[in-house]
Inverse folding.
């Protein structure tokens, strides 16, 4: 679908759910504007020391969903009557997790007679940069959005690493993906390899800031593959071996760990930059690059990708910090795009039939 | 409320006042290298409730605590090898280490899963304060819910609702704090060597009672995949009903590469990649589904049991499980109860490139 400013004037009230992975999330949006976006792991308290404490959310969706739902409605249960659409992630993800959100959404849809919108979690990440605050401001205004396509999408999280060609809203083509480990996962595993703990992303990134490039180096994965696929399992193995080697030599950890993390981060960034450049050069009609996913919590990656994109004179669209990891806000905005394309279900029997699709792809 | 400006000369008296207040269950705002925090006696339930009221809190998200040294931490949590590594090398510093609580502390400084986050702030004054106090204090930032981290007392007071402000008993003002990034949280309770070792022992024990079917050394990931394909054609294709293929080996040993071969062997056209985050990936082949599971991110038996594994087995599918040794006992009992054959495959590093892969049959 080709967007126009006229089409974007529609601003339905959307209630969105995401239970596809660790956290339970519910959001309330008016069009692209977020009114509330709640996560069970952050509820009641702004994450004071950054990042999700892993043992919190723990996929306890059944227990969490009611509370998060109430919070999303601003503790005003009557609000559900004003909602125009109910959107929920139907995939990809762990079936047993997806089912909780889907069931809850279906029940609401039937009980309050609201049209139902199935959302692809990856589409949520891809368009997480489109979220506006409740006053209507954000990175991508309506005019920019209308003129953004064709575009490239780069999605990097614990689960996904993908490059996508976005011809227009609703028309996507996967150009490349990881053949083994996702980028975010690679960080976590290195965190374990370095005996630091979980999650690995924040600590490896933090340590990399204290290190010097070039002291400990890793080969950039898939450098010469001339395709748009990624691979991080080789880098993981190299990191394992390097750390064993350094430990065997008896060098105190504090003397090499910062340079090690720096080298690892450099290799990851290098691999992303190479693929991005190749993608842009192979698709010279693109006007913008949309990025999304938890790996972009790493400010350095966010910045360096931006530098590359702007170097080609393209628009760079990235989500605010609270919408990079899994959240229902982005599901709401992807739901909004579906609504604009009339990808909605109003028939109760059809709603009933909606099932989780753990393998949903773009 | 007393607002005291810290100088080079008044540390002792400020600490004395603060300690008195903390002992009485009061709230003290204090500086750290990451921002201003708010302290109460972490061992005092009434004080903790007062803190929750201050934070305008209704949830059960755990609050970290700050100690002055590792010995104090050790009184309250079990410091395993990973945590020990962090305490030794990186603390004091902006890292919150999550460890299993010994049971002395209660929520909200202990999570639902029974773990506590501990900081040793890299701030001389604060370390002295905690040392003098002799017990842990809470290490949560001084802002109330949804407000930003305070780097100055003025900023904090500006954002404080009246109700919360009235609960503070003392502000220790050390001027504008540098805008450093918040503390990094490291959970050391996952995949500890102890947990992994336990599972490994049981797995190895089961192997010693099984028949060795095949063994091969592979020099490239492609060879590992080929081995997976051949294993599948030989042992999996003819079987009807559920089968478990249990894979054991360290990070990078080839478990996913081998599983790619299983996919190919079954005739799946899909790209098989790591299920670490999704827990279970599903791939279609020939009207069937191959389930590919990874327990690496699962923390306990409860999570293992509600992962959806049972549903796949009940549907008669082939399920490949990476890090199967981690929950070997549970897996074993499921398979013997339901009479599901289990192949056990171990992956060992011989060198950076070479792997020794051994396939054991069902008993």
């Amino acid at each position: 679908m080709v967007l126009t400013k006229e089409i974007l004037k529609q601003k339905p009230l959307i209630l969105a759910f995401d239970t596809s992975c660790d956290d339970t999330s519910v959001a309330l949006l008016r069009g692209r504007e977020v009114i509330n976006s709640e996560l069970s792991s952050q509820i009641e308290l702004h994450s004071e020391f950054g990042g999700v404490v892993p043992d919190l959310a723990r996929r306890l969706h059944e227990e969490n969903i009611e509370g998060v739902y109430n919070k999303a409605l601003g503790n005003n249960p009557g609000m559900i009557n004003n909602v125009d659409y109910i959107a929920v992630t139907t995939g990809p993800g762990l079936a047993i997790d997806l089912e909780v959100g889907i069931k809850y959404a279906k029940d609401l849809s039937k009980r309050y007679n609201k049209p139902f919108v199935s959302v692809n979690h990856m589409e949520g990440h891809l368009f997480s940069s489109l979220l506006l605050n409740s006053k209507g401001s954000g990175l991508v205004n309506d005019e920019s959005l209308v003129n953004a396509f064709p575009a490239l999408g780069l999605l990097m999280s614990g689960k996904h690493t993908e490059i996508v060609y976005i011809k227009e809203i609703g028309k996507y083509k996967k150009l490349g993906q990881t053949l083994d480990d996702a980028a975010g996962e690679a960080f976590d595993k290195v965190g374990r390899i370095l005996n630091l703990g979980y999650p690995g992303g924040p600590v490896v990134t933090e340590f990399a800031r204290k290190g010097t490039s070039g002291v400990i180096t890793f080969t950039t994965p898939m450098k010469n593959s001339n395709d748009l696929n990624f691979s991080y399992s080789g880098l993981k193995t190299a990191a394992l071996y390097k750390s064993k080697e350094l430990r065997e030599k008896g060098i105190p950890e504090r003397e090499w760990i910062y340079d090690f993390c720096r080298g690892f981060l450099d290799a990851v960034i290098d691999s992303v930059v190479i693929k991005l450049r190749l993608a842009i050069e192979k698709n010279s009609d693109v006007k913008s690059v949309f990025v999304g996913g938890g790996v972009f919590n790493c400010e350095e990656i966010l910045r360096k990708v931006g530098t590359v994109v702007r170097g080609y004179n393209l628009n760079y669209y990235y989500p605010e910090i609270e919408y990079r990891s899994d959240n229902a806000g982005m599901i709401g905005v992807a739901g909004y795009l579906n609504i604009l394309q009339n990808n909605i279900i109003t028939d109760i029997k059809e709603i009933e039939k909606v099932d989780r699709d753990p393998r949903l792809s773009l | 409320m007393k607002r005291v400006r810290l100088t080079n000369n008044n540390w002792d008296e400020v600490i004395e006042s603060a300690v008195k207040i903390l002992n009485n269950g009061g709230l003290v705002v204090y500086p750290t290298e990451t921002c201003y925090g708010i302290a109460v006696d972490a061992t005092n339930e009434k004080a903790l409730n007062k803190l929750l009221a201050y934070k305008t809190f209704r949830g059960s998200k755990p609050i970290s605590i700050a100690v002055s040294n590792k010995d104090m931490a050790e009184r309250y949590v079990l410091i395993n090898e990973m945590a020990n590594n962090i305490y030794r090398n990186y603390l004091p510093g902006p890292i919150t280490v999550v460890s299993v609580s010994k049971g002395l502390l209660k929520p909200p400084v202990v999570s639902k899963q029974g773990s506590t986050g501990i900081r040793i702030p890299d701030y001389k004054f604060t370390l002295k304060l905690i040392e003098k106090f002799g017990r842990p204090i809470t290490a949560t930032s001084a802002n109330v819910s949804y407000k930003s981290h305070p780097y100055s007392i003025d900023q904090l007071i500006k954002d404080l609702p009246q109700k919360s402000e009235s609960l503070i008993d003392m502000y220790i003002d050390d001027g504008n704090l540098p805008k450093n990034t918040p503390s990094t949280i490291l959970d050391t309770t996952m995949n500890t060597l102890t947990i992994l070792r336990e599972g490994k022992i049981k797995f190895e024990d089961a192997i010693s009672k099984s028949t060795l079917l095949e063994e091969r050394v592979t020099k490239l990931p492609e060879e590992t995949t080929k081995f997976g394909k051949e294993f599948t054609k030989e042992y999996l294709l003819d079987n009807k009903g559920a089968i478990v293929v249990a894979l054991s080996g360290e990070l990078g040993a080839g478990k996913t590469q081998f599983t790619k071969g299983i996919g190919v062997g079954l005739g799946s056209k899909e790209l098989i990649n790591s299920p670490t985050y999704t827990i279970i990936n599903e791939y279609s082949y020939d009207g069937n589904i191959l389930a590919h599971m990874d327990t690496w991110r699962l923390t306990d038996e409860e999570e293992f049991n509600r992962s959806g594994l049972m549903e796949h087995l009940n549907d008669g599918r082939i399920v490949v499980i990476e890090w199967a040794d981690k929950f070997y006992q549970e897996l074993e009992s499921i398979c013997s109860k339901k009479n599901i054959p289990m192949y056990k495959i171990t992956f060992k590093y011989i060198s950076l490139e070479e792997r020794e892969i051994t396939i054991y049959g069902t008993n």
